[in-house]
Design a protein that fits this description.
Number of domains: 1
Number of helices: 9
Distance between the termini: 36 Å
Helix content: over 70%
Largest sheet: none
Number of strands: 0
Mean pLDDT: 83
Shape: globular
Low-confidence stretches: none
Radius of gyration: 21 Å
């Protein structure tokens, strides 16, 4: 809840300053060259589907599973509006002055904005280890499979978790201003199968009965493979 509140507050603050900048100076959208990196936006957008695998597990523990489909639809619509609206407004407000992946860099230097940045950093510090939890489980099942529960096993797991958090932090810092390009390549290469290829393939094998359903699934699979190869290749070329 703390992380969600901080994210919402940060969104409101950034959008408020972006709206003020847009009102005072008009649109700077014409200063941005979109054609050079439009493929990066596809990979980055697909990366937004990284949590798609949680939909079914969450449905199993909900109080009213029959209402879950409507909730998911509203969540997708909200995320779509926020991501597209946030991107358009901030790019229109600041244009080519957005030189780093951190949109908070555009906030003015005052005490209030520094407090927002500090809280946002605290949110990242606490949420990053949680985001790595699936990776921790996979690694621990490979390394510590068969180990009896003991203090040694617990401390060893703590060590590998700390090591993974530290390594990913150092790796991200080493990327510098190319974090967005890395996430674009990562999204195109690894998130495209999760978001599009596998669901369509599973539906084709398990549920599709009519020729129309099979054709639609096949089109999604083919399209996702094209996105995966094309956007990954261009992301590497434009690195």
């Amino acid at each position: 809840m703390f992380a969600d509140v901080i994210i919402v507050v940060t969104l409101i603050v950034v959008l408020s300053y972006a709206g003020k900048e847009f009102k005072d100076h008009g649109s700077d959208l014409n200063t941005v060259s979109f054609m050079a990196t439009w493929t990066d936006s596809i990979g980055f957008s697909v990366y937004a589907f990284e949590g798609i695998g949680l939909i079914l597990p969450v449905q199993e523990i909900t109080k009213k599973p029959e209402a879950y489909k409507t909730v998911v639809l509203y969540v997708f619509a909200t995320c779509l509006i926020l991501m597209v609206g946030f991107g358009l407004l901030t790019v229109s407000a600041w244009g080519d002055k957005l030189t780093t992946p951190l949109i908070t860099d555009m906030l003015p230097d005052n005490t209030f904005c520094y407090i927002i940045k500090i809280f946002f950093c605290v949110n990242l510090i606490f949420s990053h280890p949680l985001q790595l939890y699936p990776a921790h489980i996979i690694i621990e099942n490979m390394i510590y499979n068969g180990w009896p529960k003991s203090k040694k096993r617990q401390m060893s797991k703590n060590f590998t978790r700390t090591l993974l958090v530290g390594l990913t932090t150092i790796f991200t810092m080493s990327l510098g201003e190319k974090v967005d390009k890395f996430l674009s390549i990562l999204g195109a290469l690894t998130c495209t199968p999760i978001a599009f290829t596998f669901p369509a393939l599973f539906h084709l094998k398990a549920c599709a009965k009519t020729p129309g359903q099979k054709a639609f699934d096949s089109i999604i699979i083919a399209f996702s493979l094209v996105i995966q190869v094309y956007c990954t290749a261009l992301g590497v070329i434009n690195w």
